[in-house]
Design brief:
About 25% of the residues lie in helices and about 30% in strands. It has about 220 residues and is α/β, with parallel strands linked by helices.
Length: about 220
């Protein structure tokens, strides 16, 4: 059974996810924990549930999703895994972190790369890697068909989509990718986004004002 634990970290209110199954192996996705208190919250959850982190994943590499990469890498010895097209996005964070109020940000280099169609395996669980560019050039989502769970990063939100005005973003690319890659998933798939509450594919196909049936934008 796949379990999904959500933490909301840093001033951007970014959602970090810990996924784990009955084997107690876990993956950490988008650790935005910057403050010591946030890092301790995540660490205590792992300890209290006797979880063993085995993989460190980023859906994409904007600053709010990568602030805790170094902390996880150093504390658990996990190599950072990203899509190769997002490596320039990751490398750029150090140049502007202080301007955004994160002077203590420590970069963490990617050591492994994820491509469309790859499987992220931990315990008894396989996650499918789906490339959904537009918000960021190397943005991926992680999909678990058995539980109909999708860790969507900043692609599709409840009633919205990821912004596309940052370097490497493209509005039409994101719209097309959501329709081709996410809206082809079953309607009852639950999307856990990078910000805000979870939503269902079927709901967004109808009601999302950007990509839904009656899109307004």
């Amino acid at each position: 059974m796949l379990n999904v634990q959500t933490f909301t970290f840093n001033p951007f209110q970014e959602n970090c996810y810990v996924l784990y199954d009955d084997t107690k192996e876990a993956v950490i996705i988008d650790p935005g924990c910057y403050a010591k208190e946030e890092q301790e919250t995540l660490k205590q959850f792992l300890q209290s549930n006797d979880l063993r982190p085995v993989r460190l994943l980023n859906t994409h590499c904007h600053i709010d999703h990568v602030l805790g990469n170094f902390f996880i890498n150093q504390n658990y010895g996990l190599p950072l895994e990203i899509h190769p097209k997002d490596e320039p996005v990751l490398m750029a964070v150090g140049s502007y972190a202080s301007n955004y109020g994160f002077p203590a940000y420590t970069p963490c280099k990617a050591e492994k790369y994820l491509e469309e169609g790859d499987k992220v395996t931990f315990g008894e669980t396989d996650l499918e890697v789906i490339w959904v560019p537009g918000h960021a050039p190397g943005h991926v989502v992680f999909y678990h068909p058995e539980s109909k769970t999708c860790i969507g990063g900043d692609t599709l939100f409840q009633g919205s989509i990821g912004r596309t005005d940052l370097p490497g973003g493209d509005h039409q690319t994101l719209l097309d990718a959501i329709k081709a890659k996410l809206f082809t998933l079953p309607d009852d798939v639950k999307v856990h986004p990078g910000h805000g509450p979870a939503t269902l594919i079927g709901h967004e196909k109808i009601h999302n004002p950007f990509v839904g049936k009656n899109a307004q934008f």
